[in-house]
């Protein structure tokens, strides 16, 4: 939450690329929540299944790899995605998604996966999962850009309904 949505909850500020000093984060978390050791933080980063966090090359800073609802620029370069990406959602959202496409809502990007298993897991978080396939070549032909985050989540601004297909 702190590194993606509410840095003020720990009394910290993120730089323009979403980084903050690890010591500042630990101090802020200790003052506003519960103490967290650097060892525990590093274990969380290393064992996080989704690889949500990145440590800077110097080892002194941390940031979320993607999923921000606050304005940061991760410095990602446009990349060519696989021909098909996946998006998992709950069945109760399906009618709206098929009519309106995928929108980033309060996030900076729509999140897509190259892994069917990941899409199923994401959809399961919100109810009965359904998986949509994304026609990436059609989106690219229409001028949509794709980015791949440090943890291999594919990002784009939106996915038009015409580029979505419900998996059988």
TrEMBL record:
EC numbers: 2.7.1.-
GO terms, molecular function: NAD+ poly-ADP-ribosyltransferase activity; tRNA 2'-phosphotransferase activity
UniProtKB keywords: NAD, Transferase
Gene3D superfamilies: 3.20.170.30, RNA 2'-phosphotransferase, Tpt1/KptA family, N-terminal domain (1.10.10.970)
Record carries keyword Heme: no
Keyword Transferase (UniProt): yes
Enzyme class, spelled out: transferase
InterPro entries cross-referenced by the UniProt entry: Ptrans_KptA/Tpt1, RNA_2'-PTrans_C, RNA_2'-PTrans_KptA, RNA_2'-PTrans_N
GO BP field: tRNA splicing, via endonucleolytic cleavage and ligation
Highest taxon of the lineage: Bacteria
Family: Belongs to the KptA/TPT1 family.
Function: Removes the 2'-phosphate from RNA via an intermediate in which the phosphate is ADP-ribosylated by NAD followed by a presumed transesterification to release the RNA and generate ADP-ribose 1''-2''-cyclic phosphate (APPR>P). May function as an ADP-ribosylase.
NCBIfam families: PRK00819.1-4
Protein name (Swiss-Prot/TrEMBL): Probable RNA 2'-phosphotransferase
UniProt organism field: Undibacterium luofuense
Lineage: Bacteria, Pseudomonadati, Pseudomonadota, Betaproteobacteria, Burkholderiales
Gene that produces this protein: kptA
């Amino acid at each position: 939450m702190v590194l993606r949505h509410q840095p003020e909850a720990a009394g910290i500020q993120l730089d323009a690329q979403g980084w903050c000093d690890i010591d500042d984060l630990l101090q802020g978390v200790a003052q506003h929540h519960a103490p967290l050791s650097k060892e525990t933080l590093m274990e969380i980063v290393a064992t996080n299944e989704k690889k949500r966090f990145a440590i800077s090359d110097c080892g002194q800073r941390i940031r979320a790899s993607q999923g921000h609802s606050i304005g940061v620029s991760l410095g990602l370069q446009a990349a060519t995605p696989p021909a098909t990406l996946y998006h998992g959602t709950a069945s109760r959202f399906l009618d709206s998604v098929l009519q309106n496409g995928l929108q980033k809502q309060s996030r900076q990007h729509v999140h897509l996966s190259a892994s069917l298993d990941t899409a199923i897991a994401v959809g399961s978080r919100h109810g009965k999962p359904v998986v949509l396939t994304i026609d990436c070549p059609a989106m690219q032909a229409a001028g949509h850009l794709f980015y791949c985050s440090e943890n291999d989540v594919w990002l784009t601004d939106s996915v038009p309904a015409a580029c979505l297909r419900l998996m059988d």
